Amino acid sequence: MQAGLFSSTPQVFDLPQADISYYEDFIADEAQVYQQLLADLQWHQDTIQMYGKPVLIPRMNAWYGDKEAAYSYSGLKLTPIPWTESLLLLKQTVEQQLNRRFNSVLANYYRDGADSVAWHSDDEAELGLNPVIASLSFGATRRFSLRRKKQQQAPIHIDLHGGSLLVMAGQTQQYWHHQIAKTTKPVAGRINLTFRSIQL
């Protein structure tokens, strides 16, 4: 796999207390990358407790990173799997674009429209204050939604295409929630890599 790049200028969203930019065409060979990630990563489906009952998370995931980059969210404690060659190449490509280092990645595999992630913020203590989350998408387009916390305003939607890069920085996680909602429309699989830096 080669992480070929399109020449891409980001779309910057003018949102209060947020720093969000979107590169629609970031990885040129995204279909090939999708197939390799689907085959190579150690996908599994975690269980979380909701209202005292075990519930399967509605997607597959995998946690990769540096040896010390353990991560916890929704009651889960994740120990990193060592980087694969393809993940390292993608990480380095994102790092060069953003001039920033990452030590971990949460990979999510949305098998179809029934797979989703509920409203949340990436504001766990391990990520530090004002974390930078760099999100690569491969495969089918899915709708990414944002809404301000504690305010009754209509959500903002961004359709994340295969090969795109979405970057959330600044105070975004403090003041905004985001989600990938379920859809009844026929949709193929999508893989999302969210690079982040665990504070060691």
Helical fraction equals: 10-25%
Q: In CATH, what is the homologous superfamily?
A: Alpha-ketoglutarate-dependent dioxygenase AlkB-like
The biggest beta sheet reads: 7 strands, antiparallel
Q: Give the helix tally.
A: 3
The total of beta strands comes to 15
Corresponding CATH architecture: Sandwich
Could you say which overall geometry the principal axes of the C-alpha atoms support? Answer: globular
- Spell out the helices and strands N to C: EEHEEEEEHEEEEEEHEE
Low-confidence stretches: none
Trace the largest sheet across and list its strands. Answer: 1-2-13-10-15-8-5
In round numbers, the mean pLDDT is 93
CATH class: Mainly Beta
For the termini, the CA-CA separation is 31 Å
How would you characterize the overall build of this protein?
This protein is mainly beta and 200 residues long. The protein has one domain: Alpha-ketoglutarate-dependent dioxygenase AlkB-like (Jelly Rolls). Helices cover 14% and strands 38% of the residues. It is built from 3 helices and 15 strands. It has a 7-stranded antiparallel β-sheet. Strands 9-14-11-12 form a 4-stranded antiparallel β-sheet. The chain has a two-stranded antiparallel ribbon with strand order 3-4. The chain starts with 10 loop residues before the first strand and ends with a strand.
